[in-house]
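Project outcomes to date are best conveyed with an example. Our students and postdoctoral researchers have been running inverse folding experiments weekly, and each run begins with a structure described purely in tokens. The record below, which covers 448 residues, was selected by the lab manager from last quarter's runs and is presented without edits.
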């Protein structure tokens, strides 16, 4: 049996549940790699070379900004597709090629973080742009191929995979930066992404589709029926779904959570490396360990979240984060003990993982079926925009607030989340979506 026969015999993702979980999780590992490099490893490296909190926070904000552009990528993917290869798979492959090329460009140029600060930030922006495009494509693929009762568990695998990618590139990238420099670190990650790309290259979304554009195969009925040939239909339906009351409320709540998280991401490397005397590798590697522990924790707890409900899990996790930020702010005398901040980083990762799994499940429930992929992309884009905003806020805060006061601000954002949380009513949202469906069907009948 030759290699072509073996590839042809592989089951399609739609036909194999465990293969769906594995593939979606692995794809999230790939998109986590540039995040870890530009959000943890390089910022810690910059801090070790004396760059200020404002410079590190601005760098993270610039490099991470493309993740807010997903609200543009979603409609483009819904509008343009190549159904013979599947609805989302061509976009996944294209994005992964882009990530590899961006990392190779960094390896070739090897910019200095001080003299070429903006060039490095721009290259980070480029790599994360392709990571964000892949994220939209994979989320759309998940909505298309997952069964209703698989979503919470799939979210655990997906975001667990992303944490593994972020953690792995944080630790590996930090060591490579310290021992060999930026060029080697980028080259190593480019090779890893290229290897991961072999999985979507050899697996179809649905049986009978093409592996590559020039191979044999036909578009599935589902892929053909999902094609939308009108920008007006996409945007008009999307806007009406987004402005439903519960949709707007959850966007606000996730924004509060993400701003606090972005602030922590920018403060932590500078505080630990510059003020508390940690080695850059010590910080990055502990973030990696905490992330991997959180990923496993999330996978194990995914079915529990499914059973007891995302709302309960989310409220508990946010309360834990609020208490944690208050404890850090008030226990400043404990900061010199490395175990204290290591415990804070671990607890932050564990609670953040549960928040992510729960809130993504809620966003999937809020998504209107006719524009689900685009609407979900908008939710994720806004979440990432507010994360970048949180990191960017450190620049104007630096010199005005001390670190303890910044942690109080993070706590206040989470407390505000908890105060607004009782207003969330999913039953009302289901009724609103049913009313929207009826309106759209009426309009379609009138048009006919």
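After processing, the design step wrote out the following sequence:
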């Amino acid at each position: 049996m030759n290699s072509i026969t073996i590839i042809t015999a592989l089951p399609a993702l739609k036909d194999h549940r465990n293969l769906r979980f594995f593939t979606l999780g692995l794809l999230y590992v790939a998109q986590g790699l540039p995040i870890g490099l530009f959000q943890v490893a390089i910022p810690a490296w910059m801090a070790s070379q004396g760059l200020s909190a404002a410079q590190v926070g601005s760098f993270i904000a610039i490099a991470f900004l493309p993740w807010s552009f997903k609200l543009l990528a979603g409609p483009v993917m819904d509008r343009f597709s190549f159904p013979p290869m599947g609805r989302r798979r061509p976009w996944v492959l294209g994005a992964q090629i882009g990530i590899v090329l961006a990392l190779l460009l960094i390896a070739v140029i090897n910019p200095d973080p001080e003299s070429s600060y903006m060039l490095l930030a721009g290259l980070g922006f480029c790599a994360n742009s392709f990571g964000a495009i892949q994220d939209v494509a994979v989320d759309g693929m998940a909505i298309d191929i997952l069964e209703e009762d698989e979503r919470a568990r799939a979210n655990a695998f997906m975001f667990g995979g992303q944490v593994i990618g972020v953690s792995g590139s944080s630790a590996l990238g930090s060591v490579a930066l310290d021992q060999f420099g930026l060029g080697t670190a980028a080259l190593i990650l480019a090779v890893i992404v290229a290897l991961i790309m072999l999985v979507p290259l050899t697996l179809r979304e649905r049986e009978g589709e093409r592996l590559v554009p020039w191979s044999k195969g036909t578009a599935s009925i589902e892929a053909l029926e999902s094609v939308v040939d009108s920008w007006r239909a996409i945007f008009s339906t999307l806007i009406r779904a987004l402005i439903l009351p519960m949709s707007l409320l959850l966007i606000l709540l996730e924004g509060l959570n993400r701003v606090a998280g972005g602030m922590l991401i920018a403060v932590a490397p500078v505080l630990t490396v510059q003020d508390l005397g940690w080695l850059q590798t010590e910080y990055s590697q502990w973030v990696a360990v905490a992330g991997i522990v959180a990923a496993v924790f999330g996978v194990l707890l995914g079915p529990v979240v499914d059973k007891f409900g995302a709302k309960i899990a989310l409220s508990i996790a946010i309360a834990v984060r609020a208490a944690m930020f208050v404890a850090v702010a008030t226990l400043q005398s404990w900061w010199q003990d490395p175990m204290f901040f290591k415990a804070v980083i671990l607890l932050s990762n564990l609670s953040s993982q549960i928040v992510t799994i729960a809130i993504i499940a809620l966003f999937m429930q809020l998504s209107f079926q006719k524009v689900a992929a685009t609407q979900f992309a908008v939710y994720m884009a806004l979440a990432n925009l507010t994360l970048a905003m949180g990191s960017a806020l450190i620049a104007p805060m630096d010199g005005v607030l001390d670190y303890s006061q910044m942690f109080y601000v993070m706590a206040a954002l989470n407390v505000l989340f908890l105060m607004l949380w009782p207003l969330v009513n999913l039953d009302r949202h289901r009724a609103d979506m049913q009313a929207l469906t009826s309106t759209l069907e009426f309009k379609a009948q009138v048009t006919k």
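The domain at 13-210+224-442 is CATH 1.20.1250.20 (Growth Hormone; Chain: A;). The chain has 18 helices and no strands. The training component of this project remains on track.
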